[in-house]
Write a structure and sequence with these properties.
- The protein has a single domain, classed as Porin (Beta Barrel), CATH 2.40.160.10.
- Helix content is 0%, strand content 77%.
- The chain has no helices and ten strands.
- It starts with a strand and ends with a strand.
């Protein structure tokens, strides 16, 4: 279990008052359950006309299935300023190493939703992906992914789009 927090003074803001942040997280691991975490966070900061507050709850898990790994995640965030904005993010991924550290394949899907209480924002984004990653030798790693993104803006349909993305990231350790 982890717990953290802080209280601090913001000197760049003209509003007097303290800002603060607090969080607590729990993690479990046992047998086929590779990881289960739950985290709760809260932060606050004063401004001249309002007090900004943020709350978030996140959970993730990973289980071993034969020689594969199934991972899932969910997070909820609510931010209050002069309006309230809420977002949800969820993901699911299955991955399997095929040849030691040289190649790992993963397939997954992510969902993201954003809304505010004024009715000015209502967006959803679905992303499906296929990823190949690995390490060549001890100094070079790669990550190749193909993503299909579909974003829907329910308020302004001109903001909706579909996108196919290919990316390759090469890293070298010096």
């Amino acid at each position: 279990m982890t717990a953290d927090g802080s209280v601090y003074k913001v000197f760049t803001d003209s509003t007097p008052g303290n800002s603060g942040r607090a969080g607590i997280g729990l993690a479990w691991r046992s047998g086929w359950l590779q990881n289960l975490t739950i985290r709760l966070d809260y932060n606050t900061r004063p401004y001249q006309t309002y007090r900004a507050q943020g709350r978030s709850l996140s959970a993730s898990s990973a289980v071993a299935l034969w020689r594969a790994r199934l991972g899932s995640s969910y997070s909820y965030t609510s931010s209050s300023t002069d309006k309230t904005v809420q977002s949800h993010t969820a993901g699911l991924e299955i991955s399997r190493p095929l040849y030691k550290q040289l190649l790992t394949l993963a397939i997954g899907h992510q969902y993201y939703q954003l809304r505010d209480d004024t009715g000015n924002s209502d967006q959803a984004k679905n992303t499906s992906y296929l990823k190949a990653s690995g390490t060549v030798g001890s100094k070079i790693s790669y990550d190749f992914s193909a993503r299909r993104i579909q974003s829907v803006d329910r308020i302004d349909s001109a903001g909706s789009y579909r996108q196919n993305v290919l990316s390759l990231i090469l890293s070298r350790i010096f």
